[in-house]
């Protein structure tokens, strides 16, 4: 979880460094990640052959939602700051919690909800001084909200699918599907596939290796062991890491309230994870006596 949080914190930095269209960044990010994963996919061919038509449809839908997430969220960084965009992205657990309750009847303990509230409050402080009322900032905020909703759907579908298939196979198929969606989008919009300087290609590779392999793939793997709500709570750590990196590498200034918000995020995250871990431990203890 810690490795994943650090890795995804670099995502917004790489995106800010790039001058390429966000749809091209997203396409090559997912394409290069898929190519890195392919050599290790042979043991999962049997599992792929056993997938039902409904599974393939859900995988395609999850890939579309992932592509939509990248398109909207990455696009938001062209209009607003790293702190603002990642602060809004941290509302993802709210979408996840509601979706998990509606579709999976998954309940959340009161203490965990308190931790979630504290963490989200901290995220609000991080972006408080950075959210403006200009048309550009508003557009960036709306794009980030749309991207947050899309990735929440992606994670909820993933939670259902990784029960029946290896997380590695799930990640590979979904990344390929999302890359294809981006390719079709770029083709329709007449966006160039190849005419970019070497610096951009380096950024595409960094986006694939750092936040995707060590971020999204790790989070997909975690879905086998913890709920989508818990995985999404870890993303609350991204605004902290991303804001610090934006300060160091992009010169984006942070106010005292934003530093205080970072501490609240980590506190709330700790409360939530501790409550979830305690609940899991109690369940495991109860199983032998129940049997």
UniProtKB/TrEMBL annotation:
Location(s) in or outside the cell: Endomembrane system
InterPro entries in UniProt: EamA_dom, EmrE-like
Domain of life, per lineage: Bacteria
Keywords assigned: Membrane, Transmembrane, Transmembrane helix
Keyword Nucleotidyltransferase part of the UniProt annotation: no
GO CC term (a single one): membrane
Keyword Transmembrane: yes
EamA domain ranges (all copies): 2-127, 139-271
Membrane topology: Multi-pass membrane protein
Membrane-crossing segments per the record: 26-44, 56-76, 82-104, 111-128, 140-157, 169-195, 201-219, 231-250, 256-274
Pfam families (alphabetical): EamA
PANTHER family found in the cross-reference section: ACYL-MALONYL CONDENSING ENZYME-RELATED, EAMA DOMAIN-CONTAINING PROTEIN
Family: Belongs to the EamA transporter family.
Protein's UniProt name: EamA family transporter
Organism annotation: Paenibacillus donghaensis
Taxonomic lineage of the native organism: Bacteria, Bacillati, Bacillota, Bacilli, Bacillales
């Amino acid at each position: 979880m810690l490795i994943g949080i650090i890795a995804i914190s670099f995502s917004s930095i790489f995106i800010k460094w790039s001058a390429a269209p966000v749809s091209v960044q997203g396409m090559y990010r997912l394409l290069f990640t898929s190519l890195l994963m392919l050599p290790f996919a042979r043991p999962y061919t049997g599992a792929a052959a056993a997938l039902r038509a409904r599974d393939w449809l859900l995988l395609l839908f999850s890939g579309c939602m992932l592509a939509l997430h990248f398109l909207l969220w990455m696009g938001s960084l062209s209009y607003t700051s790293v702190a603002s965009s990642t602060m809004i992205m941290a509302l993802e657990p709210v979408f996840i919690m509601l979706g998990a309750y509606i579709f999976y009847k998954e309940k959340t303990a009161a203490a965990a909800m308190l931790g979630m509230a504290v963490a989200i409050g901290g995220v609000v402080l991080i972006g408080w001084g950075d959210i403006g009322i200009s048309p550009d900032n508003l557009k960036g905020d709306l794009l980030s909200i749309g991207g947050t909703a899309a990735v929440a759907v992606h994670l909820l579908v993933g939670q259902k699918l990784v029960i029946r298939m290896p997380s590695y196979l799930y990640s590979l198929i979904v990344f390929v599907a999302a890359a294809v969606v981006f390719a079709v989008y770029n083709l329709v919009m007449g966006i160039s596939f190849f005419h970019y300087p070497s610096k951009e290609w380096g950024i595409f590779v960094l986006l694939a290796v750092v936040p995707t392999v060590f971020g999204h793939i790790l989070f997909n793997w975690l879905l086998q062991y913890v709920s989508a709500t818990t995985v999404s709570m870890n993303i609350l750590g991204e605004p902290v890491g991303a804001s610090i990196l934006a300060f160091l590498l992009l010169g984006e200034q942070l106010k005292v309230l934003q530093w205080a918000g970072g501490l609240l995020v980590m506190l709330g995250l700790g409360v939530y994870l501790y409550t979830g871990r305690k609940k899991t431990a109690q369940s495991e203890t109860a199983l032998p006596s129940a049997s």
